[in-house]
Every structure is written in C-alpha cells, then in structure tokens.
C-alpha cells in the first residue's frame, strides 16, 4: 500500500511539474528568433504576440496573436505546433500544426505568389517536416465576396509539398477534396444548396467540378452545375507564372446554359424591369492579369443567348412605341415567343448586341450597354405588327440596371410631330418617325451610343 502511495505521489509530482514547467521556461528569446526567420522566409514582417510551452496532453508550442505583413494580410488567433515523439531524435523533425481562426486578406496572394515563384534551394528534405495542418474556422476576406468560414485537414509530404487536403465550409454546403495521383493532384469541388458569393447571389442546387492540378496549371475538364431548374456546363484552364517569370495569370474556358429559369436571378438585378422564361446559351471567356485577384476585372467573354416563351415584366413595349407614354409611365409587360442576342463582357462593362424580341404583336431589335457604374445606354426599335403604319419606332434606353427608363427617342417625337404638321396624321407621322429612325442610326455609327 505504501509503495502504491509513493508511486501515486511521484506521478502526481511529475504531472504537477509538467503543468508548472512551461511557465518557468523563458520563451521570448525563441519567439524573437522565430519572428526573424519567418520574416526572412516570407519577405514581409512577422510578429508573434505571445507563446508558451505545454507538456500536456503532449509536448507542444502554443503561439498566439500572429500577424503577417505590413497591413495585417494574415492574422492567426492561435497556432499550435505539436512535434511527433517518434521523430524527436531523427535528422528530420516532424511536426503537426493546428491553426485556429486565421483571417486571410486578398492581399496575402502577393505573399503566396512570391513564395510560389521562388526556386527551391535544394531538393533535399527540410530540417523540419510538417506532417498535417488542421485549420479551424478560416476566414477569407475578399472585397465584394462573402466567403464562408472554412475548416481544413491538409497532409504534406516529407518535402513539405501538398499530399492531400479536405476543405469544408463550417455549414457543410461547400466541400473540396484534393488527392495525389501520380504527378498531379485530383481536385473535386462539390456544393449543395449553396449561395454563390461572387456577383449575383445565385442559389446553387448542386455543383460538381472535377479538376487536375499539375505544376502551374489547373485544368477543369468538367463543370456541372444545377441551378434554377436548369443546367450550367463547361470547362476551363487556369495557368500562373513560375520561377519569377514575367508571365501572367491566364484563364480561359467555355460555358453552356440549358433551360435556366431566369425570373429569379433577373429580378435580383432589377425589381422594376425583369425577365421570365427559359434561358439557353453558350459562349467562351478568357482573362489575363499580373495577379490572380485581377482576373475578374480583366474578364473578356462572349455569349449567345435565347430566352423562350417569356415575359418582359415592368415594360410594355407596344405601349411605349405608341408615342403616348410619358416620363415615369413605364409599366405593364411584354410577352414574347423568343428573346435572343449576344452578350459581350469586357471587365465590368457589358454590351448586349443584336437583341431581337419577337411575339405575335411586335418585333423589337437593338443594343444596350451596361456601364461599370450600372448606367444603361442603348437604342431599341419596335415595330408593332397590328399598327397601320408598320413603322419601327426608335426607343432610347437609359437609367440604371435597377430602374431602367425606356422612352421614344427625342428624334422620334420630333419627327412624328414634324411629319404630322406637314403631311397630316398617318402617312406624315410615319414618314417623320422613319426619318428620325434613320437619324438615330447615323448618330449611332458616329459614337452616339457611347
């Protein structure tokens, strides 16, 4: 019994020492050394607010308040470094990392980009090998993008290169699975009942992207997205610079849309005037930029589209073309059999060209530009088939995307008035409108639609 008590007291003493010892070990010197090494490796200032050793439940170093970069590009609430006991006396020490609540800004891409282009000093294993990285509640801060909190489990090779990874949003709606396959990584991205954080907050029913990562190239041979009762499919390729080269980030690919219901997404852009119907379309896109964060700003795209059996809500084109509508009287609706056109994208500017709306009552043709500030500038001609004159009425498109304004052009009103005064109503009005339409067309040729 006495021997058992002695053993118990001894074990208790050991546990007590393991609890007290970390507070007796000076760590500030080691933290300052770690700051200098990290700053040199990353090429930006690194500060560590606090750090201490822990021996329970196993030996580990806990650092908190870590800040990377002049403008806090990366902030880590807590970093836990756990050495593998089996590798304590080997030439290469292995550690596991736990990163708790890191906050990473878009500007951190500049730091990681610089690291990616640096050549390895040698191909030998590093003195310290990182086995696994467990990331808890990572927050990515990108302007204009509302990204979810992410958890991640990452495994590295002995050369500290990516072996595999599992990344999942805290709400479980977004998952990324990365596995090593020969000389490349297979990447599977899946989403379920997820709201797209870029651009319009589109609701994704289900999405699956199959990717191949090899060197500085990410190939996406299959994009499969179900949304708004339809399908979005396509492929893409992304490449980036290596070895401090002057090359750019490059993105290109193709997308096709099949039977998408456009009522809900179009009403997000404008509650005043929006479309309903089923969308079909296809096209290509590309972008070239010095940095990854600039790709969206440099996007170039061209898409042909067609909407079948739909309604243009909030705008009665036949009424507008009657020349009786006044400022602020937009309203009603226009039913159509088909609405087709070509969408050109250049950065933040959109150009809807070769627009053609056809129904049993009218035919409308034209083009509209959407400027970076969401202002509209366009010209549409409407021909009402059951009218006597069968003259195409030119309509000016202005206002904002959220509140479009469509009215007969000033030239059309002036031409109608002049023709009526000279030749009388009917023929005179028609000839005046026709002349006004020709004038608007000539103005467009010389930059009047800019």
Blueprint of the fold:
Layout lengths: L1 H23 L3 H15 L3 E9 L5 E9 L5 E10 L9 E13 L2 H10 L10 E14 L8 E7 L5 E8 L4 E8 L2 E12 L7 E12 L2 E11 L2 E10 L9 E13 L1 H7 L4 E16 L10 E14 L3 H4 L12 E14 L2 E10 L3 E9 L5 E9 L8 E8 L2 E6 L1 H14 L3 H19 L5
Parallel strand pairs: 4-5
Antiparallel strand pairs: 1-2, 2-3, 3-4, 5-6, 6-7, 7-8, 8-9, 9-10, 10-11, 11-12, 12-13, 13-14, 14-15, 15-16, 16-17, 17-18, 18-19, 19-20, 20-21
Order of helices and strands: HHEEEEHEEEEEEEEEHEEHEEEEEEHH
Strand content: over 45%
- The share of residues in helices is 10-25%
- Oligomeric state, counting identical vs distinct chains: single chain
Q: Determine the structural class based on helices, strands and strand pairing.
A: alpha+beta
Short description:
The chain is an alpha+beta fold and 450 residues long. Helix content is 20%, strand content 49%.
Written overview of the protein:
By secondary structure, the chain is α+β, with helices and mostly antiparallel strands. It has a domain at 22-172. The chain contains seven helices and 21 strands. The protein has helices at residues 2-24, 28-42, 108-117, 263-269, 317-320, 410-423, 427-445, and strands at residues 46-54, 60-68, 74-83, 93-105, 128-141, 150-156, 162-169, 174-181, 184-195, 203-214, 217-227, 230-239, 249-261, 274-289, 300-313, 333-346, 349-358, 362-370, 376-384, 393-400, 403-408. The chain has a 21-stranded mixed sheet. The termini are far apart. The model is unreliable at 5-10, 12-26, 119-125, 414-436 and 441-450 (pLDDT under 50).
For the structure shown, list the relevant keywords.
450 residues, 20% helix, 21-stranded mixed sheet, 7 helices, 21 strands, alpha+beta, elongated
